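Quick one:
INPUT:
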């Protein structure tokens, strides 16, 4: 088994965000996976130099399904950190940033179809009235999936990356992915949502 590197775990927590308004845009990325047969967008807003494990975990993710925008960034219950390091707290801010960075989002806004947005950012699904819930309520026919606890990553000595959400196996208050539609947390209501545990496995080896 690979040994962990000497560095600590890197958390996608806005309180530990090292980006700011002067972030070098060469250190974050926004990309479409259409060239590999997928039609989803992956937005990697981690700083490559300051949070290399988080950046690498996002960079190696090649499995964004059609009609999905997956956002890797720092966050908190009431906010996301945009690619410029500025906090996104309102639907208007979110829409402006996504219109600039995501082809899938632009198509959704133009066609009036459906969309799924996955927030790989700390605690963005923690509150029923937090950022994931607020965004799902603001945008018609949207689904937002976000974690209740911190999203983290670390690099091992052999170069592989481990990423997960904290407290997944905590019996009293387990970390989980909440699923919001129209501002309502629907996690656990429909059987199909149980597949989220398979979609986001407890260990990701890259």
């Amino acid at each position: 088994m690979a040994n962990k590197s000497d560095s600590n775990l890197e958390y996608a927590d806005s309180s530990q965000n090292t980006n700011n308004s002067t972030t070098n845009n060469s250190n974050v990325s926004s990309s479409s996976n259409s060239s590999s047969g997928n039609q989803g967008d992956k937005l990697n807003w981690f700083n490559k130099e300051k949070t290399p494990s988080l950046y690498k975990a996002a960079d190696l993710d090649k499995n964004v399904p059609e009609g999905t925008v997956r956002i890797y960034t720092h966050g908190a219950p009431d906010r996301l950190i945009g690619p410029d390091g500025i906090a996104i707290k309102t639907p208007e801010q979110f829409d402006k940033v996504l219109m600039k960075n995501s082809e899938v989002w632009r198509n959704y806004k133009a066609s009036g179809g459906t969309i799924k947005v996955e927030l790989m950012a700390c605690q963005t699904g923690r509150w029923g009235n937090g950022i994931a819930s607020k965004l799902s309520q603001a945008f018609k026919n949207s689904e937002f999936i976000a974690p209740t606890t911190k999203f983290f990553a670390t690099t091992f000595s052999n170069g592989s990356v481990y990423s997960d959400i904290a407290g997944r196996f905590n019996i009293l208050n387990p970390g989980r992915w909440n699923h919001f539609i129209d501002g309502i947390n629907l996690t656990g209501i429909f059987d199909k949502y149980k597949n989220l545990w398979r979609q986001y496995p407890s260990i990701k080896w890259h």
